[in-house]
Amino acid sequence: MLQLIAFSTLNGVLYGMLLFMMASGLTLIFSMMGVLNFAHASFYMLGAYFGFEISRRIGFWPGLILAPLMVGVIGALVERYGLRRLHRRGHVSELLFTFGLAFVIEELVQMVWGKLPVDYRVPPQLDFVAFRLFDTTYPAYRVFMLLIAIAMFAALLAVLTRTRVGLIIQAALTHPDMVAMLGHNVPRIFMLVFGAGAALAGLAGVIAGPALVTQPDMASLLGPILFVVIVVGGLGSLTGAFVASLLIGLVQTFAVAMNFSLAEVLGPVAPPFLGDLWKVTIAELAPVVPYLLLVLVLIFRPTGLMGRRES
């Protein structure tokens, strides 16, 4: 039991921090522009494929730096020549644009790299055992992923709260007209924030690609969870996205590790009218758990855990 709790906690925190790396950019984009970017998970996929291509040519470490920058540039261009032109037409046009962009990126990835998973491997420098706990080993690369995610969160928090650029961005989130009157180029701020959000998603893809499967449907598999994170945390709340990411990561990881059913726990007390439903294990229900959490949050706290109701 202690081994289950220890490793489930480590894996849950790791998964939650990876979710936050993507949800943070999506939260900033929604706060500033009011756009739920359906193509955000596609930037995560591009980061994984760019990291794979760069790592096989010049190494993993250059890819860790270059791939997020490339994804960030693509994100900035999408905002400058796509979303900015559609902004005057309302949010429906923006949503449809990002929805279609996700399919375009997926098709382009399949055209370039094929439909099968690519052989994106852990770098040899990190391919060893970090520590042993309860006679079970924990890979060093997972520790590296966790450290990168924590460093990203600390850097993002420091930039937003301790620097002049962060203060301008936070002011532009709530009072863009006032920021423009002070002489700042608000459209350029929008473009840079959108590009930075895409770069964060690309960074998550670079470091998650070797540990997970890098394949063309990785965006569609992870995309819905991102919207669960930002809704549970509260639309536009960066702190809420952090808390919701960790919560969902831990809840889903522990659910996967619980290979028993409610019928085994309740025994003869289990209601008979539900039949075999009580025999379904918690691990089999794990993919549904985040969405059940989403439903509960929408019922009891529609603004999310840390969202604020608009007046």
Structure overview:
The chain has 311 residues and is an all-alpha fold. Helices cover 70% and strands 3% of the residues. The protein has 12 helices and 2 strands; from the N terminus they run ααααββαααααααα. The protein has helices at residues 2-33, 40-58, 60-86, 91-113, 140-162, 164-174, 176-181, 186-208, 218-233, 238-257, 262-266, 289-300, and strands spanning 129-133, 136-139. Strands 1-2 form a two-stranded antiparallel ribbon. Helix 2 (40-58) packs parallel to helix 4 (91-113), helix 2 packs across helix 8 (186-208) and helix 2 (40-58) crosses helix 9 (218-233). The chain is globular and about 70 Å long. The termini are far apart. The mean pLDDT is 83.
- Strand proportion: under 5%
Distance between the termini: 48 Å
* Helical coverage, percent range: 55-70%
E-strand count: 2
The number of helices is: 12
Short description:
The chain is mostly helical and 311 residues long. It is built from 12 helices and 2 strands. It has a two-stranded antiparallel ribbon.
SSE arrangement:
Elements: H1 2-33, H2 40-58, H3 60-86, H4 91-113, E1 129-133, E2 136-139, H5 140-162, H6 164-174, H7 176-181, H8 186-208, H9 218-233, H10 238-257, H11 262-266, H12 289-300
Antiparallel strand pairs: 1-2
Question: Notable features of this structure?
Answer:
mainly alpha; 311 residues; globular; 12 helices; 2 strands
